[in-house]
Design goal:
It is a single chain. This protein is mainly alpha-helical. It is built from 13 helices and 13 strands. The chain has one domain: Alpha/alpha barrel (Glycosyltransferase). The chain is globular and about 55 Å long. The two termini are 15 Å apart.
Length: 410
């Protein structure tokens, strides 16, 4: 029996979900939000308290609350309070990119990437009925509408200064990818189809236009007029959020999001979506998996498929697992289930940290833990979703699906 159809494997995933939740309760340790966690799950006070970590961990523990795990709701409440107070810019609106341990504004710019996670966190917390979540979601969507959505381009802008007067001239696929994730969740939670429609517009431009023309490698970097900047960060190829070249992990993530959007649209889904999702998946496997004859996915390649940054990052594997599970559910083809099993075997051997908990965030091509790009284990967002996506339908999004009792429903 394929693991994706095996109830015993679902029980193993559930055990792993609980292990990840047990690693991260220090998400509520900092008065200002959720701190960066070190390899042991302890707060790293040398680093700022980041909005993207706070909002992602709020979403994670909303998943735990939806699963009925005691102790998760109070971590969600901590995150909602932090986003409603310490991170909230009472003068200009929106949310600071980072604050100090005690909640004082540090990086006061406004970033689309982090704001997308505020929408996701507030959506998830709303579903599980946490205080202040509905108000936070309403505010986050209003900020998205007023400052981030570019209706002419059908895309999100990247960021602003504190006062929303000077837009960042850069435009990026990564922030838009997480905006898709956030908008799909917001559509499920609010019932307002405009957010799903906007998610599809982003998917159409980045995937059906840009990635299709690049043989399913996703262009990451653009200027303010949405012209590609192919040499962006060529001198700093291992940037955490804006690396040079193409990123197989993002190919997998876009593939999953396409299939989730397609399922949400039902009979109204554009015909290109399935073929594009499979094209992205196949390209990511061909370029990234077992690169250099060694297991794991490389972080980045150039646009000929040659590895640039060979480090194996945990989130890339997590997204490959999610993409394989969704591709199998969408097509019924066992090839994707086989890949799914192969990648969990790799995770079990190399990536899951059985001594300290969670997943090693970065490995060498030889499978040894390293910390060049990702010191510590900042959050558990990617890993925990890899344990839940295989157990849930393609639509609705994760927390609404859990709330409807759709776990392990086939």
């Amino acid at each position: 029996m394929l693991w994706l159809d095996n109830p015993a494997h679902a029980r193993w995933l559930e055990h792993h979900t609980d292990g990840l939740l047990a690693f991260g309760p220090h998400a509520a340790a900092a008065p200002g939000g959720s701190p960066w966690l070190d390899v042991n799950g302890e707060p790293d006070r040398t680093k700022p308290v980041e909005l993207w970590i706070t909002s992602r961990m709020t979403h994670v523990y909303a998943l735990g609350a939806a699963l009925g795990r005691p102790g998760c709701a109070e971590i969600v409440d901590h995150g909602i309070r932090a986003m409603s107070t310490a991170f909230a810019d009472r003068t200009y609106g929106g949310w600071y990119a980072s604050v100090t341990w005690d909640g004082e504004g540090l990086d006061v710019t406004k970033q689309a990437y982090a704001h997308a996670f505020v929408i996701l966190a507030a959506s998830s917390a709303t579903v599980v009925g946490r205080p202040g979540a509905t108000e936070l979601l309403r505010s986050a969507l209003a900020v998205a509408e007023q400052h981030f959505w570019d209706d002419e381009a059908g895309m999100s802008v990247e960021g602003w200064d504190a006062a929303f007067t000077m837009p960042d001239p850069y435009r990026g696929a990564n922030a838009n990818m997480h905006t898709v994730e956030a908008y799909l969740a917001a559509a499920d939670v609010t019932g307002d189809a405009i957010w799903r429609e906007r998610a599809v517009r982003i998917l159409t431009r980045i995937i059906d236009v840009e990635a299709r023309a690049a043989e399913w490698r996703v262009p990451e970097h653009f200027d303010a007029a949405w012209h590609q900047v192919p040499d962006y960060n060529a001198s700093r190829p291992d940037d955490r959020f804006r690396p040079f070249g193409a990123t197989p992990g993002h190919g997998m993530e876009w593939s999953r999001l396409l299939l989730e959007a397609r399922a949400a649209l039902h009979d109204d889904a554009p015909t290109w979506m399935l073929d594009a999702a499979i094209g992205l998946f196949d390209r990511a496997v061909a370029d990234g998996w077992f690169e250099g004859g060694q297991p794991g996915f490389c972080y980045t390649t150039d646009f000929d498929g040659n590895a640039v940054v060979r480090a194996r990052l945990h989130w890339v594997l997590a997204e490959a697992l999610g993409a394989a599970a969704t591709a199998y559910r969408a097509t019924g083809e066992s090839t994707y289930a086989t890949w799914y099993e192969t990648w969990w075997e790799y995770a079990a051997r190399y990536v899951i940290d059985r001594e300290r908990g969670s997943w090693h965030h970065e490995l060498t091509p030889e499978g040894e833990p390293s910390f060049t790009m990702w010191p510590g284990k900042p959050d558990i967002y990617h890993a925990i979703q890899a344990t839940l996506i295989p157990r849930l339908p393609l639509t609705p999004t994760l927390v609404p699906a859990l709330a409807r009792g759709l776990l392990d429903v086939r």
